[in-house]
Design a protein that fits this description.
A: 412 residues, mainly alpha, Formate dehydrogenase/DMSO reductase fold, 16 helices, globular, B: alpha/beta, Alpha-Beta Plaits, 3-stranded mixed sheet, 11 helices
Amino acid sequence: MYYVISDFLKTLKHVSKGSKWYYGWLAFLTFFILLGLVAYIKQLNHGLIETAMRDQVSWGFYISNFTFLVGVAAAAVYLVVPAYVYNFRPIKEIVLFGELLAATAIMMCILFIVVDLGRPERVWHILPIVGAMNFPSSLLAWDVLVLNGYLFLNLFIAFYALFKLAHGKELNMQIIKPLIIISIPWAISIHTVTAFLYNGLSSRPFWNASILAPRFIASALCSGPALMLIIFQIVRKVSRIEIEDRAIFKIAELIAYAMGLNLFLFAAEFFKEFYSGSIHLAPMKYLYFGLHGHTGMVPWMWTALIFNITAFILFLLPKTREHYFSLNLACVLVISGVYIEKGMGLVVPGFIPGTLGEIYEYTPTMVERVITIGIWAAGALIYTLLLKFAMPVYTGDLRFTVRGEKALKTTD
Amino acid sequence: MSRESDRRSGRPCRSISRRDFLKGTAAGIAGAAFPFGSTIVSVWESFFQKHFREMSQDEIRDVIERLQREYSEKFDTRIDINARKAIPGTLFGYGLDLSRCIGCRRCVYACVRENNQSRDPQVHWITVLRFKKGEKWVNDLEGAEKYYYPEKVPEEGFFYMPVQCQQCENPPCVKACPTQATWKEPDGIVVIDYNWCIGCRYCMAACPYGARRFNWGRPRIPKEELNTETHYLGNRPRYVGVVEKCTFCIQRTRAGRYPACVEICPVGARKFGNLLDPNSEIRYCIENKRVFRLKEDLNTLPKFYYFFAT
């Protein structure tokens, strides 16, 4: 017991120490978290009327962010597959950071769901046993199960690995390997179930297309790893961890293939809707050309498309892929492109036109934006602290007390 | 019935001021969580209230007593809540004669009064759509107009189609609800437990008829306009952050009365009755008129039949 406490204190001490930049970054994030909290209290006070959502468009910015982040979380699998199954050493070294990112993304997902609820204090009604979970009928019930399972799985794998490393021991592959194998289909499942959540609704023609789940996976495999690439470069800069260029370029190459698939699936959907031209074309028309003079989403959607195509080319050509400026540019383009496409570009057209043909154009209010920024800041804070702990453990600079031995010194 | 009031339900939000932000912060959290009831016990009981269908008769009675206490504190008047069960051998069905409907929206407001919908922000359970005659058929709803404001109805060259909860036999909303807060009763009415709904609005996304309404703001009803004869699963006052919808006036129809919209209709366009009774008016309509249901391709099997009698 004594060891646990002293190790915990050691961790705490380590995490709370850092450079001026580190403190500045934490303060910056805390500021936005507090701002988001204040906005959320306002929303709790007055109800969701503080948002721009209405009966016509009953899901908005929060659910858009949720959907995007499920994709980020799912994409951890992209690093796990080659690392563990094919033993691609350079990526294997860095899977840990991908798993921590996945766990953080799921925590943000949960926050986005909670702020979207009309009665957050009743959230326990959704749980099995204590509540009245509508399983297996409701896809939302499925989503609760798979997302929490995925969170647990990633946290367990990551912390087991960190715990062993911190004690200077080898990982027990007999424990870890089955979990890793499970986590691969599980990652696919979280995104598939989230896609099915929309896909299963016959009331919303835009979502009720079989291409939805494959497109979800394809786009998630672009944005998640792109985010990872940026994070790896930061990790490389602020710590002694060496991440090989080879690993980074390999991931970039994989993103190119995923984006190619994503663009192909998009083209298939675009063709089907516009060529057949049934009345179910309306949401697609709203997105790309506007509907009856309502053009709120049009500039965003074309921006996303241009971003995605440009990034595809940059990732595809070895010359631009292996040049850090164009690589990072492509990462930013992919993240923004998918954020628009799999966020607002997916959720809003489900509701426009509404089931009774009404067009209500949705633009998030200041409260929605501030709360959203607050949750992103909270996610960044969680990930920063996790990295701050994981990096020195990984490099061997932070070691826990091993029973029967004298504690190794912590160096910074 | 004015343009002003109809617009209000969809009005955009005010921007935030810092003072608003901080005002009543702590009280606000508690207030949002537990709208009525000032005692700790009440708050506790309200938080741990069980799912309606898992409660025994005694527990339902206790809950209703507590709710009545809470409502009387809030509205300063006594509200009767009953939990009358479905009458065996009934399956309610609705008929609407589109050739009679004049689009006057009297049903919309009779419903609001009967069912204690919020007056500010306005909540309506019935939407009346206006279609141009000789153009598209009612399954292309994009051509419909919800916001029509003529001097007089009916207007030349138009017909009207009121839409409310279609009480599907195969309801997509019930399937979607993650907490089983909404379900289909034995008499075919789809109901919601307002004390169990978490406000996720998945049911609203699932409904093909735009029938479900959310309490985006705190519902407000002037005390003198309150209908104090209520049903637990029907027209008792609602809370902020929960979903509500038409229940075929469960408080009336289970007591052998007509829904308020049927009663108010000045042209007799609305029919209501027991689908299991071969002599009922609704059965007559289905058997003798050429009826159709909305979005039949979705296989939701509504118990709401439209027809043109003339």
